[in-house]
From TrEMBL:
Species in which this protein is naturally found: Paraflavitalea soli
Domain GH3 C-terminal as annotated: residue spans: 388-492
Protein name (Swiss-Prot/TrEMBL): GH3 auxin-responsive promoter
Superkingdom in the source lineage: Bacteria
GH3 middle domain sequence ranges: 298-361
């Protein structure tokens, strides 16, 4: 049975047949739906949702009456009440699940509310993405009906006073719809395992019993899983075990640094499908083969706003300014970086998710993720984004025929000026100096500001090559292995201090 041919619940099927509208009209419809549902909450009463709904210009009125929030601001003002068990704060009812964010930028976990409405919206977007596979060419759709290996967090969630908390992937797996259960691997028993190494060992043990067509997860952990299966059973490629494996659905981090490593593990090409599934919601997905970017989910459960990511709207630490310019979907331009504000069916309102995106096709509303508001380097005006870094690393890896699956960068003092310190993961035999020179040159080619500052206050670039295992061990010591955890591309603050200590002592 092919997964995309199964019967869907009537409510979901109805949602999937919504008529096409302009992006602006779609988004205003979503906003009104959110406001109507939350009008009687404490948040809705405070910020006069009824008044916004009566306005002819609901979008602008919403922006006038409701302030913008980052995590700390909305938690201190509102979300701590939901964590205490109080109902009807930012969304109707009592919040029973909280996603613990992967926290690449900060040491403390964030508690993000998860509602049934949000999970339903995420499932609808997932099904829409599945239906788009019909438009892909020359791919074995029979693989969609095979097993799906979803390598996520544990479904054995932390129990709090009246709620459960854990990795979003663990919550999602725990609440897998009944119609999806026959396809879902590794199964509920293994999914409950909290210890990452034990979970991986159990998956490797069961691998011969599965016929996997899809793998879903963060590239680093999927690659590690495949490598262990190939090693355990002395295989030439993962296709010796799973001949129907055809798709890899990934997200949360650029796939390009991992692509060369993946190609060594397969006997035939995989179709790579990018998604933008954050703990706060399913924001976007690749809906056609060879697309420039991911299509924003405009007609479902998230209202988007966009803040031009520049010095006028953000300070040097990536914090939003009080008078920041905020745009709606019809006001954005191609080729510019924006930070995203979202309002969702989980009671996130005008919430700064922390990612930056760029529209690569405005007509199709397709975006690429370019980095994080706090994960960029601009010590002296070089404005170096994670997207710049990813592209430079990819170009150098291809040019030198080496694999660089992980890297991180930090700004460091250089006398009275500054320098960039790179650490890259590479298990191939290669000298650091040519890699350093090539990455530096590629960044000059990609970023004019960087090129100017390299002749001014950005005095040097340092680079050290480490084994990939060093990066994985650091993540293990930080308790951030497996699930949705990603290695931070820019090191700042406490994370940087721990990284330096780890490199010096092997501990944190």
């Amino acid at each position: 049975m092919a997964l995309i041919d199964i019967s869907l619940p009537p409510s979901i099927a109805k949602a999937l047949r919504l008529p096409a509208r302009s992006p602006r009209r779609q988004q205003l419809r979503v906003l009104r739906k959110l406001l109507k549902k939350a009008r009687f909450t404490e948040f809705g009463q405070t910020y006069r949702f009824d008044e916004i709904l009566l306005s002819k210009h609901a979008g602008k009125k919403f922006q006038q009456l409701v302030p913008t929030y980052d995590y700390n601001k909305i938690y201190e003002a509102w979300w701590h009440k939901t964590l205490e068990g109080r109902p009807d704060i930012c969304w109707p009812g009592k919040i029973k699940f909280f996603a613990l964010s992967s926290g690449t930028s900060e040491s403390a976990s964030k508690y993000l509310p998860i509602t049934n409405d949000l999970m339903r919206g995420n499932r609808i977007v997932m099904i829409k993405q599945l239906l788009t596979l019909r438009t892909y060419h020359d791919i074995p759709l029979k693989s969609v009906g095979k097993g799906w290996l979803m390598l996520g967090g544990s479904t054995d969630l932390q129990k709090g006073p009246g709620y459960y908390a854990g990795d979003l992937s663990g919550i999602t797996a725990k609440k897998v719809p009944f119609w999806f259960s026959p396809f879902y691997k590794p199964g509920k028993k293994i999914a409950r395992t909290k210890d990452w190494n034990q979970k991986l060992e159990a998956i490797v043990e069961e691998a011969p019993n599965w016929d996997i067509g899809f793998v879903v997860g963060v590239p680093a952990w999927i690659q590690m899983c495949m490598e262990k299966i190939i090693e355990r059973y002395n295989l030439k490629s993962i296709h010796d075990m799973w001949p129907n494996l055809a798709f890899f659905v990934h997200g949360g981090v650029s796939f390009e640094p991992y692509k060369k490593g993946f190609e060594k593990l397969v006997a035939k090409p995989l179709t790579y499908i990018e998604t933008y599934l954050a703990s706060e919601g399913f924001l976007a997905y690749q809906d056609r083969q060879f697309a420039k970017g991911m299509h924003l989910s405009l007609n479902d459960h998230i209202f988007f706003e966009f803040i031009p990511f520049n010095d006028k709207n953000f300070d040097s630490d990536g914090n939003i300014m009080e008078d920041a310019e905020v745009l709606m979907i019809h006001e954005v331009e191609e080729g510019k970086d924006y930070a995203i504000l979202i309002s969702t069916t989980a009671g996130a309102w005008r919430y700064l998710i922390g990612d930056t995106v760029r529209f690569v096709d405005k007509e199709r509303c397709e975006i690429v993720i370019t980095g994080r508001t706090k994960h960029f380097l601009s010590l002296v005006g070089e404005h170096l984004s994670v997207d710049n870094m990813n592209k430079a690393v990819q170009l150098v890896a291809d040019e030198m025929n080496i694999c660089i699956p992980e890297f991180t960068v930090a700004g460091v003092p250089h006398g009275l000026f500054f320098a960039h310190q790179w650490w890259i993961a590479c298990d191939d035999k290669v000298d650091a100096e040519p890699v350093r020179e090539k990455i530096d040159q590629k960044l000059k080619d990609l970023n004019d500001d960087y090129a100017v500052e390299r002749n001014s206050a950005l005095k040097d670039v340092y680079l050290k090559i480490l084994p990939e295992s060093s990066f994985m061990e650091f993540m293990r010591l930080k308790g951030k292995i497996g699930g949705q955890h990603k290695f931070p591309r820019v090191m700042k603050g406490k994370m940087y201090e721990d990284w330096v200590k780890f490199l010096e002592t092997g501990a944190i």
